[in-house]
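Saturday, quiet lab. Running sequence design on the structure tokens for the scaffold JK sent over.
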């Protein structure tokens, strides 16, 4: 398990030239809930009791590498997960779980009401692609696929989605990513065609 050092401020989006410091990935214990995210401990802020409104907008997002190539180096997957988390946090969204294998990443997030899902995913893909190419940790990475997949979820789905993402590596020991996406689309009532695979 990766230990994250407590600091006085939440994570900020790291520069594209260097990986985010583990020291920047947590906030004060008096102000956080702990979540286990892949091998990463996520420190998420407690809701503000003085907020004027409360929203819950849960989305299960899937992004894949260009042509679904196995280019997310397994020894550095935690680095890209941390970097994506810093982007999500900078947009006032709350990461609930992140995980995947060498050719795709699942992101389960509570999206802030001021943020559009397309804008959030676009920023994640754009910034993380640049960072991965410059970091030197993902030498075969060519970029993300053109499409992304996002499925809205309810509070009752929360535990199921978290466990599903947690067990990605075991899951893909018996099912390909392509078959997984097709099954997810059918389960959500979305018409599938192989042209969605990019």
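Result came back. Writing it out in full:
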């Amino acid at each position: 398990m990766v230990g994250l050092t407590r600091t006085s401020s939440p994570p900020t989006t790291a520069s594209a030239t260097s990986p985010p410091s583990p020291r920047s990935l947590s906030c004060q214990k008096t102000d956080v809930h702990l979540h286990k995210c892949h091998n990463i401990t996520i420190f998420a802020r407690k809701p503000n009791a003085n907020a004027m409104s409360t929203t819950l907008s849960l989305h299960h997002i899937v992004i894949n590498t260009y042509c679904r190539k196995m280019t997310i180096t397994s020894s550095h997957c935690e680095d890209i997960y941390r970097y994506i988390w810093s982007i999500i946090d900078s947009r006032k969204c709350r990461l609930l779980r992140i995980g995947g294998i060498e050719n795709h990443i699942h992101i389960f997030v509570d999206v802030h009401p001021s943020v559009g899902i397309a804008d959030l995913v676009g920023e994640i893909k754009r910034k993380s692609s640049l960072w991965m190419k410059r970091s030197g940790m993902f030498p075969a990475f060519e970029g993300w696929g053109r499409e992304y997949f996002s499925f809205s979820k309810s509070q009752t789905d929360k535990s199921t989605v978290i466990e599903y993402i947690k067990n990605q590596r075991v899951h893909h020991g018996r099912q390909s990513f392509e078959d997984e996406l097709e099954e997810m689309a059918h389960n959500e009532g979305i018409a599938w065609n192989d042209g969605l695979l990019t």
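Notes for JK: The chain is about 30% helix and 20% strand. Residues 1-45 have pLDDT under 50 and may be disordered. Ask whether to fix the surface positions before the next round.
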